Amino acid sequence: MCGIIGIYDTENRDISKILYYGLYALQHRGQESSGMAVNNNGFIDYHKDLGLAHEVFSEEIINRLRGNVGVAHVKYGTNGEPNSINAEPLVVGYKKGALAISSSGKIINAEEIREKLEDEGTIFATDTDAEVVANLIARFHKDDIEMAIVNALKSIKGSYTMILMTTDRLIGVRDPYGMGPLCIGKLGKDYILSSETCALDTIGAEFFRDVEPGEMVVIKDGKIKSIKSEKIYDKKFCIFEFIYLARPDSKIDGVSVYLARREAGKLLAKASPAEADIVISAPDSGTVAAIGYAEQSGIPYAEGLIKNKYIGRTFIEPTQELREQGVRLKLNVLKENVEGKRVVLVDDSIVRGTTMRRIVGMLKSAGAKEVHLRIASPPVMDPCYFGLDTTKKNLIAVEKSIEEIRESIGADSLEYLSLKDLIKGTGEEGVYCTGCLNGIYPMDIHKN
Amino acid sequence: MCGIIGIYDTENRDISKILYYGLYALQHRGQESSGMAVNNNGFIDYHKDLGLAHEVFSEEIINRLRGNVGVAHVKYGTNGEPNSINAEPLVVGYKKGALAISSSGKIINAEEIREKLEDEGTIFATDTDAEVVANLIARFHKDDIEMAIVNALKSIKGSYTMILMTTDRLIGVRDPYGMGPLCIGKLGKDYILSSETCALDTIGAEFFRDVEPGEMVVIKDGKIKSIKSEKIYDKKFCIFEFIYLARPDSKIDGVSVYLARREAGKLLAKASPAEADIVISAPDSGTVAAIGYAEQSGIPYAEGLIKNKYIGRTFIEPTQELREQGVRLKLNVLKENVEGKRVVLVDDSIVRGTTMRRIVGMLKSAGAKEVHLRIASPPVMDPCYFGLDTTKKNLIAVEKSIEEIRESIGADSLEYLSLKDLIKGTGEEGVYCTGCLNGIYPMDIHKN
Amino acid sequence: MCGIIGIYDTENRDISKILYYGLYALQHRGQESSGMAVNNNGFIDYHKDLGLAHEVFSEEIINRLRGNVGVAHVKYGTNGEPNSINAEPLVVGYKKGALAISSSGKIINAEEIREKLEDEGTIFATDTDAEVVANLIARFHKDDIEMAIVNALKSIKGSYTMILMTTDRLIGVRDPYGMGPLCIGKLGKDYILSSETCALDTIGAEFFRDVEPGEMVVIKDGKIKSIKSEKIYDKKFCIFEFIYLARPDSKIDGVSVYLARREAGKLLAKASPAEADIVISAPDSGTVAAIGYAEQSGIPYAEGLIKNKYIGRTFIEPTQELREQGVRLKLNVLKENVEGKRVVLVDDSIVRGTTMRRIVGMLKSAGAKEVHLRIASPPVMDPCYFGLDTTKKNLIAVEKSIEEIRESIGADSLEYLSLKDLIKGTGEEGVYCTGCLNGIYPMDIHKN
Amino acid sequence: MCGIIGIYDTENRDISKILYYGLYALQHRGQESSGMAVNNNGFIDYHKDLGLAHEVFSEEIINRLRGNVGVAHVKYGTNGEPNSINAEPLVVGYKKGALAISSSGKIINAEEIREKLEDEGTIFATDTDAEVVANLIARFHKDDIEMAIVNALKSIKGSYTMILMTTDRLIGVRDPYGMGPLCIGKLGKDYILSSETCALDTIGAEFFRDVEPGEMVVIKDGKIKSIKSEKIYDKKFCIFEFIYLARPDSKIDGVSVYLARREAGKLLAKASPAEADIVISAPDSGTVAAIGYAEQSGIPYAEGLIKNKYIGRTFIEPTQELREQGVRLKLNVLKENVEGKRVVLVDDSIVRGTTMRRIVGMLKSAGAKEVHLRIASPPVMDPCYFGLDTTKKNLIAVEKSIEEIRESIGADSLEYLSLKDLIKGTGEEGVYCTGCLNGIYPMDIHKN
């Protein structure tokens, strides 16, 4: 789903460092590539490559990237081989000068538009949606840049949030359904745009407000203005942001991710209680819901699995042989806590089920008497067409009944949170895209 | 305190990979350098450098390191500039062939012995204790290697655990006070030596037993034998291993680190209760004690601080200016959880107090009504002479009274666990070195 | 001027390695960046980056790049900061699939076309001429690819040679003036295209023939066909290729570079004799002409300057202070050879004069009695608009008379080869662009 | 044979940069590893690793290495796998403080001394002679450092030159036979020690004098003093330094390497003339002798082979298959120069003959009518025990007669320079070790 951030500075700040720390705060949204572009008096300099922010940027590069407007990006890798050419921000030149785009989400008619553009003789250097958008904007170069973007967006459909940097402006857009998150912060009197509020906290900025569905905000010289899309639909925000994607310390459209997850845990405890001695989580994704489950049920919360925090991207993976010999890298069981115990194991979701099978096996080997698996979201039954990396083929809930899943994972019981409770936990109703959970998408999908 | 691991394989395993995963499990014991030496028919090949295991070892190097006996090391950096020359295992040649040593702890009369050896015309290529020990062993080369080690150890004093690899043996030693941890595992019928049991779990080995204080174990061809030191003192195990150093999923001399920390949290709640709405921990070090505190007190456990997990060794640190502008990298407050709340904040220990001051400030800014700081160990009042990186100068508890510390940190109340309760939590009494907490060391120290 | 090479393989060769060795042979034509694209059943994979071929390509990457058609490139850096985005081959998608372009030379109306394309809404991701050409080709996608290229080329003007790779063809083009070199080789029954014949020798291919001015050759399945441009002008090959750019072991349009340079040296000796004891060259560029000068004049050839061959791209340059203290990195004088001698110093050309001043100074300090500077080409008086990195500002011959140059360099005499003799040395007349020597360019230039 | 350089600075120079440029000038003496140690008020800091100087040292490291005395080293790789642990300078601590040693040559009784030291309980961390010497010096630590070195050297035998850095002195030693080169330069009023004079030229220093056989020079605070060994033998300088090892622009013990090689070429032309059209060299080693041969014979000198100068250490070598298909990387024939010609091909020496066979083959394929091979030194018939990497097994002249060598190489004639003429060319008689040419070594060798 990618992480994006942009700043328009009027007070001579070291913006490349600020963006770098912002990327670091948004790194959970994408680990495939990192990039940054800055505008230095109309000349856009940039750097991007495969890797985490701290791998891609050296002090030397950060010091080179000087300017008063900047935009940065971390990419969530979805299809095919990672290729540095697809790293963002996309930086291109067009009639009106340079344009940089950091995008998140998925434009579902991008392929269609791409074909139309190709019919007109357009070439494409990358596989990104951002390049499609840039071409559309360039088509309207006779308009003012703001109108050009408005016109360009008219033809695209899907889930998208974008931060664009022109030669003199920083522009944020959120699709008319508001499917992805985008917020505005203030650093002194200057404005910042970011996927999540946690990046604002990290760089010492204040939360200002969320960008609204179908809104475009234009920032220039310390001023902000808002342009609304002609068509704005009922908000359909991605429910998976609350389940898994967003950081717990972020607040999206006024809802705290942490509180929504804890509430999901509590509602799960109410609807699906278990006779057990301890509540543990599958680290780190299940932790908040597990705490909620424990609080509601009165069963003590404990750590049952310890995660090794030193794993790096260049780590040498064990061979299948070594795995079979018992080498287990990321997680270790806390035998003392689970031996002889009836355990409630809480996780945020099950997609393919492989990791969960291994975890339950570890708990049982360590002497857990019973393992009651509780999932703080409904079964993932349908693919996401808006950027999340799930395909119909891998979804365990499509292939198996809940009882079959339980059996295959080896748990003593398995219960999922209902969609109704999941939504209730967020405090808002009717505002979510729940396509992957119930097959109801906010717009027509050309299913493949 | 360093992490050490060794294996004597008789079944043609891929031991360099096993050691690599072992180092990864022990990485919390040292991040300065990583190294590994393997014995291939009497020829010792090795690789070591500054950095984490996954940075130092590439697949190519791991594949090159082939043999049936191997020993590895991660170094806890203490004094001066990190220098790759001090990485271990130390590999040297002497009269009887090659010798590799992975050591942990601190020999307190190393300087004295070094001077005596220099008087005799010895040169030193490194600053390590291991080189001192290697020289002592080489002096006794006319003896059998086991006797040579026994004789060499007679003159050294301090806290040490070592794994030595000779041309045909793997040897583990633990000092006569048993100040540091060393355990034996079994992988099939083969023996493994490791600082902590968590490494055994990671590589799929079974725990066999701990090496005893003053014991030397010699492993050869799938057989193990034990040689006891003439002088064995009452065990004086480093209490800080339970407070902070060891991984919670390890068991040392029969005591679970997790249970000891949870019990510390419980005893802390009993002795130092607080009127509060939630219990949170300073991640990650205070988490287990915080869970115990919450369980005992009945106050709900919550996450109040979120730690960014993407920080790398090559990360660009913020300037002081950016820090003052509010850039906070490693931790973010969960405002929703702390706003308007009375918070119990639990950590394992306070050494210098700087981080704690920042955390309490963050909590207060986020709207915490009260912050009651509870420390699951007594004040650190005295230096450690046995390898822990604390010096009298930096210890806040030496310079300030508890009330002054509280004030300087900005907490509403501050209480420490008593030494008595700390020890009680481990379930064993009279077996600890508590020098840094009460100035009572197991042996005479030439204080500087 | 860049180096380009392409291959269409029908015999399952390891083409990425062949292209890699080809780039290595063409490395003298460009050191800024290196790149390669291969066609694997219609899917084009590629890798390119700043640096020499052996720095950019690892064995792993070369092994990954598998296919039956391939094209590669080394870039001669001209304007501005090196940026990896401008590395070639350019790889884009358009209506008919993937297209890769390796280009050399300079399209002088590229800026004009770029503006026209931007008017139509086109975006540009790079600063390369190749991207302009790709856009033009894509405009004609309804035509067959060969006609599309023919049509695209109609609007471009300048010096260019290109190798294009489509989903099923390898295509070479040379501009209608034939300003840059491009030849065809055979490897078994397969065809290869290359900037220079030295690359054919290196990879073990036979020279087949040169691509003619205004010719396009299309290679597919081991067959070659030729398409001639409607407009073909009198050949105007860049004379600087013979002076400096090409490798001496290449043969261009039937003329041996070595023989042309040696002949230039001989004619220089005839027209500008000197009373001297030895002939030396400024290594390595002046060596061939110096050998010719020595042979003609009967004055013995000797080495007067030794060049250090270990300099690397990452070398730390000396500060100005160290230079003034006498640190001289690349060249050392052979005092024994020049002391007390009257020296003829031969070089291929003088552009800015700084290096030559230093060299003459070194020779004088080493005791040379006289230094007679002989240049195997006429003064560079005008800028090159076709890709050579000379601007009017830096040209010493523009600012100073020959006598002033001599004085500023400190030589005892200075003579240049006449343009007539230079051309005579190549054995062909009326076929050269001599713009930088006499201001006569083959086409109208919009001078800046 | 390694390259060594040291400086004692009294004028606050940037000595790490000066040493770096010195290493670069001496790089031809060793490409396995590079290293440097500097003395900063008694504290010795250093850096060394496998690789060329420009690969091992970054600007950051060079800037870190600050001090007033420094010593540096490039290692010529001989035995076994390159291992960074054997890089020099060796830096150790002993009773009197720190000691750094850069050594060159081979101590032939090092193994014997090593065993004796091991008997006394000494350990060794490296395989270097320098560590043996350091141990011997440390044994005499009660003496003044100068006497300690004098005493240590009494027991070693072989070819050696060394630069030692103590806490307050820079010391150069040359063995009593003067087998290897070592000279003294002056930079302002400060002294420099270097393997060859070319490094002095590079860093802008003046040649002062050569260190004499059996001499030890001690430099301190801008003063130099000389200590002579009790035993000084007739000088036996390595003749291979003149044949191949030294750089042509160096002068050793008063003899110019260039002039010696040119004279060898001339004497070769006199003794072994050939009816031919051109004289060419095997680049770069045969160039100087070829120039001499051409001058003496009156046959024109020409370039017949062009060497690619872009090869790097990380270059991907062609497979045997590609070699057989004609891929030739380092050299290309200048067909124009050799086709139809009778060629004299001059090289400095033949060791194994493989490269020469390939070169002659290339010349013949390119159409050379005859190839007359002339070698500017006698056949290499015996191993070198003093550091040169030749073993009896690989020597073609041991296995074959000259006629057989000629046949195997494919030359039309083959002649070697006589030993008498070789020595005559240097202008000095009776002062050379010619062991590898005639089996007469200056000292008893325990032949293996």
Automatic annotation (TrEMBL), chains A, B, C, D:
UniProt KW keywords: 4Fe-4S, Glutamine amidotransferase, Glycosyltransferase, Iron, Iron-sulfur, Magnesium, Metal-binding, Purine biosynthesis, Transferase
Active site: C2 (nucleophile)
Superkingdom to which the source organism belongs: Bacteria
The protein, known as: Amidophosphoribosyltransferase
Organism: Sporanaerobacter acetigenes DSM 13106
InterPro entries, sorted: GATase_2_dom (IPR017932), Ntn_hydrolases_N (IPR029055), PRTase-like (IPR029057), PRTase_dom (IPR000836), PurF (IPR005854), PurF_N (IPR035584)
Catalytic activity reported: 5-phospho-beta-D-ribosylamine + L-glutamate + diphosphate = 5-phospho-alpha-D-ribose 1-diphosphate + L-glutamine + H2O
Pathway(s) where this gene product acts: Purine metabolism; IMP biosynthesis via de novo pathway; N(1)-(5-phospho-D-ribosyl)glycinamide from 5-phospho-alpha-D-ribose 1-diphosphate: step 1/2
Gene Ontology biological process terms from the UniProt entry: 'de novo' IMP biosynthetic process; purine nucleobase biosynthetic process
Glutamine amidotransferase type-2 domain span: 2-222
Co-factor binding details: Binds 1 Mg(2+) ion per subunit. Binds 1 [4Fe-4S] cluster per subunit.
Cofactor(s) the record lists: Mg(2+); [4Fe-4S] cluster
Residues noted as binding [4Fe-4S] cluster in the record, renumbered to the chain: C238, C384, C433, C436
Residues given in the record as Mg(2+) binding sites: S285, D347, D348
GO molecular function: 4 iron, 4 sulfur cluster binding; amidophosphoribosyltransferase activity; magnesium ion binding
Known role: Catalyzes the formation of phosphoribosylamine from phosphoribosylpyrophosphate (PRPP) and glutamine.
Enzyme Commission designation: 2.4.2.14
Family membership noted in the UniProt record: In the C-terminal section; belongs to the purine/pyrimidine phosphoribosyltransferase family.
Pfam family, one: GATase_7
